[in-house]
Amino acid sequence: MNRDKICFGKTAFLFLCLVTLLSGGQLLAAAGKTSSKKPPRAVYEPLYEVRVTKVVDGDTVDVEFLGETPPECDTSCQRIRLIGVDTPEYYKKVRQPYADEAKEYTGKCLGTNMRLQLDWYTSYKDRYGRLLAYLYAEDGSMLNYELVRNGYGRYYGKFKFNKQNMASFSQAEEYARGLCLGLWGLEDEGASDR
């Protein structure tokens, strides 16, 4: 009889530990034992409905949230930096090669409704306060990925993000390079420098 109680006690303890781990420590917090660590982010981030209101350059846009706003946002309008892609800089006086084309490609999204998704692997904002995100068109295509695959920008893995997306973005750049698409087709070999 004591052996059954011990086995049951061990099983209950293991179950409680598992539930605590899966709940991100919420049971411990409820029991009054709070942790100084931030709770883990959800593995699957929700999608937010947005409208693109301004295109700054190929990898930066302003959006207006059409419904729910992520907790990381201060207002319903937010500047977005697309994760995983770096397009040529678009300055008013001096533009990097292929900056106009990249901005024009992203400009096709202006005024359209899209879905925005954050990435739990990376911080939600960059050092300039821009929200780091993926943007999806109504057909499900991801703008970030399409910019790289069509040669409008380079794969940008300086800041880690979802590992599966990092791998697919890297492959997308190899594809664009291999076919000399977009900026990879420029005669100036400086476009291949990182």
Features:
20% strand; globular; alpha+beta; disordered C terminus; two-stranded antiparallel ribbon; 194 residues
Major beta sheet, specifics?
5 strands, mixed, barrel
N- and C-termini, Cα separation:
69 Å
Strand order of the largest sheet: 1-2-3-6-5
Tally the helices.
5
Cα Rg:
22 Å
The ordered H/E elements are HHEEEEHEEHEH
Which structural class should the secondary elements be placed in? alpha+beta
Principal-axes geometry comes out as globular
Mean pLDDT: 79
Low-pLDDT parts are 5-43, 189-194
Strand residue percentage = 15-25%
- Quaternary structure: single chain
* Total count of strands: 7
Instruction: Assign a percent range to the helix content.
Output: 25-40%
How would you concisely characterize the structure shown here?
It contains five helices and seven strands; from the N terminus they run H-H-E-E-E-E-H-E-E-H-E-H. It has 194 residues and is α+β, with helices and mostly antiparallel strands.
Describe the SSE topology:
Blueprint: H1 2-22, H2 26-30, E1 47-57, E2 60-65, E3 77-82, E4 85-86, H3 99-107, E5 113-117, E6 131-136, H4 143-149, E7 154-155, H5 163-178
Parallel strand pairs: 3-6
Antiparallel strand pairs: 1-2, 1-5, 2-3, 4-7, 5-6
